[in-house]
Amino acid sequence: MNRQMRLVLLSLITGIVLMLIKFIAYFITESNAIFSDAAESIVNIVASGFAYYSIYLAAQPKDENHPYGHGKVEFFSVFVEGGMIFIAGSIILIKSIYSLFSPQPITNVEEGMYLILATSFINFAVGFYLMKRGKALRSLTIEADGKHLQVDAYSSIGLIAGLLIMKLTGLAWIDLALSFVLGTFILFNGYKLLRKSISGLMDESDTEVIEEVVTILNANRKPVWIDVHNLRVQRYGQELHIDCHLTLPNYYDLNKVHDCISDFDQVLNENLHSKTEFFIHADPCMPECCHYCTVENCPIRSEPYSKHIEWTTVNVTKNMKHFRDR
């Protein structure tokens, strides 16, 4: 069992235990707000179960039918988790509206608060750990699972605060208000996860990774790398696929071009914290490149070097050499 699967298994076991505690709290209090919190725990369990399977599938090697591997399933996992959260939020809002017209008396509020407080501490601790490990492992599934648990912990803290106010004031409507607020909060977080997963499934460019790539390239820039453009980054699970155009001196032979591309590949693979596959297209330089080219003793230079062009997320992603962007 790999590290990611162990982390998801931790989330799954935690979710089952906390769900049981929350439903015990609901049954002894009959609180709509506590029911809202318990209902989300069911989502945690279902999402963690699917995440466990997706981590297993993403770890499978490339094959003829999946030449880029199985990493995209992580985006689907996040989509399922976001969808489940969205559905849970909708159910909570529906029950809140129903209870508005058919209220139930609330009992044993203090005991219920203690149980929910215990679950919030556990959820926050496990969620924090999963998010930290998810970022280190570059796993969207682990990170999303950790974020979900932390959101659950925050909502539980808000729930406790509201129940305490209700106990002190005796205002029963606070329970319904809390349930409605929690449902809306859960809906919003489900939407954010859905948005993130759809972006990945639609191959939306990963701006954070592009910024990281540009920083690494500027720090390790070589004179013969005259410019980089048409840079695109796609994430497949823990792996990155990067393609770009690299402008090189047009008098280089094929062996020299191959060496330059290998250096470019090595620089990024040594500094990025993900396994990276490159597709680099070599472009020959043109006379218009001379004013920003820093190659020394160039035999074909048509004008002296006069301008430094910093590589940015704007000019490296455009499909044009940098002199065309003046």
UniProtKB/TrEMBL annotation:
Signal peptide: none annotated. Keywords: Membrane, Transmembrane, Transmembrane helix, Transport. Residues 207-285 form the Cation efflux protein cytoplasmic domain. Residues 8-202 form the Cation efflux protein transmembrane domain. The chain crosses the membrane at residues 7-29, 41-59, 79-101, 113-131, 176-194. It is found in: Membrane. It comes from the Bacteria. It is a multi-pass membrane protein. NCBIfam families: CDF (TIGR01297). Belongs to the cation diffusion facilitator (CDF) transporter (TC 2.A.4) family. This is Cation diffusion facilitator family transporter.
